[in-house]
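Incident log entry.

Two folding requests arrived from the same account within the same minute. Monitoring flagged them as a possible duplicate submission, but the sequences differ. Recording both here for audit purposes.

Request one:
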Amino acid sequence: MRATTLASEVLELDLDPAFASETIQAVIAAKNNLALTYTVDEPDRALTLAEEAFELSRQQGDHHRKATSLSNGADLLQATGMHADAMARIEQPVAIYSEIRMQAAAYQPDIWALSELSEW
């Protein structure tokens, strides 16, 4: 049995409601990972899974997973020869990752800690 087939079977279990985790984040991660295993043999299924993961991420407001899903989709489009579509799609996760990085750079834990101490 090929490793990708085994990985696909294991990840499919994560999507089965009887086996799925209680958190939507686990389902999103399973869909993203499963999409990667289907890239070569079933690219249409892979793209559908990445798009489903993106939609769930969008509904949850999870920017990291949303960017990951979009990036996976761009990789899938590239792998199937849809280069122009891949280039158009990759701009979205790059923008999201940039926004996340700017928000992280604005976070200053030392100032937060000092402000908490001043309330004592």
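Request two (distinct sequence, not a duplicate):
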Amino acid sequence: MINKFEPLNIYHDDTLSLVYSEEAKCRRVVESFSPHVYFQSHITLILNLNPLATMKKIIYIFALLASSASAQTLTNNGTVLYISPGTTLSVSGSVSNTLGTLNNSGTLSTTGNFTNADVYTGNGKIELTGSSQQSIDMGTSPLYNLDVNKGGSIVVLNNDMTITNYIDLTGNGNYIQLGNYNLNMQNGSVFTGAGTQSFVVTDGTGKLLQNVSGGSVVFPVGSALASYTPATLANTGTSDVFGIRVLDNVYSSYNNNGVPSGSPLSPAQEVNKTWIVDEATTGGSTLALTFTWNTANEGGSFYRSNCAIALFSGGSWQANTNGAAASGSNPYSISRSGLTNSFANTPFGIGGNPNSPLPVTWLGFTATKKGNDAQLNWSTATEYNSSHFVVQRSLNGKDFEDIGNVKAAGNSKSISNYNILDPNIIAFADKGITTLYYRLAQYDLDGQINYSIVRSIYINNEKSITQVSLYPNPSSGMSYLFIASESSELASIQITDITGKLIYKDNLNLNAQGKLVELGGENLAKGIYVIQIEQGGQRQVLKWVRE
């Protein structure tokens, strides 16, 4: 009898069967000769091919159940390891098929990493059940079935992987993280159990690949564990394999691989995500796309009632004038059909302001009181066929009139800055008007109009708040609230969650130069918060999103 807490090397020329003895409650090797070998916890099993043996040696694994093992590892260094149908080989540790053949027609369950560096065959499944992060590397071999059952942890790809039948993500907290590797779902293979709590995380350049022909195919992807933003594709053209990945933020520039450059744009009017769509064979496809997002992904001025999918092509965002109301209720979805582009890592985004999202990529628009006048400043990151800006003012926030006209840059991939002064607005206070509203109407050369966010200025004959800004928003760490006022009167700040519960309250002495307030931190829960600033009867309200 062998009873050791050290690596066990097996050399044998005959067929070897591993069976489970219910009566003995242990794992044992039963051969046609003695002795029996009992595997105990903390044992590493290494299967080596004796160089003097013939290549016909096969080790048949009929059952290996590890109820008492706590740190096993299994390494195949040259045998043909066979797991028969209906049989489960459980390893409380890592499995490595370093040299030889692993024929899995049953179930191989492991709590550690799985690495295949030689030949893997069979229509069985690999089951990953560890409570901490696991990795899988199939080398060049496809995998028939993969069962991820981790309940709150991730499986990391260490190589491109092809699935030929299914991936089961049933349950909460079962994630596959691609990094820079592709997950290829071969034609006919499916996901089961994918959803808001179990999906594919595209945190690098790796894509989820699926065949799309005729009916709709869901790509269950998200850019992070807490951000499920799937894409659904339907193709009425030539059947093709499409790759999808989603990344945080919207950018003014992407290279030919769909990798963004520069700093993220301010997401005021957009969903703060970019979906990258790629196809194996360019041309011949006619796509309908549906993208899904969450409230926390929306910019502060996103118009959910009139939004649309825009694509990035030719170095800039292309306008889409077919705006529509988003469907659903957190999550939300919007669709676009009839796309016949050649999809080569093409970025797509969702813009949300009336008529035409993302023909001009806005960096910012501010309206501030400057003495008796209103100072309006705005900037764009990119412009495509932009003709001019019309500055509009409203007394009630609904009915706008034109008050100025500014020529646009036309076509630009660099930052363009604009400004205009609306003089003597203090005169409106004498007529009982306390607030003025401003917006920009950006006209394309083809006559299409793209409206900016609406900004307001509080006016009276007394000194008041002149500027309020919050950045970054949304944020996962600190945000910074900037407040400037012509009055030194004490101002109050309070933050509540969406239920009205008070989270923060403070008083500040403001000045014209402005005060900067740090907000947030890692301990503040994710969600939507309302910031209210009051001074001398004037109130400013902002929405703050914590991711």
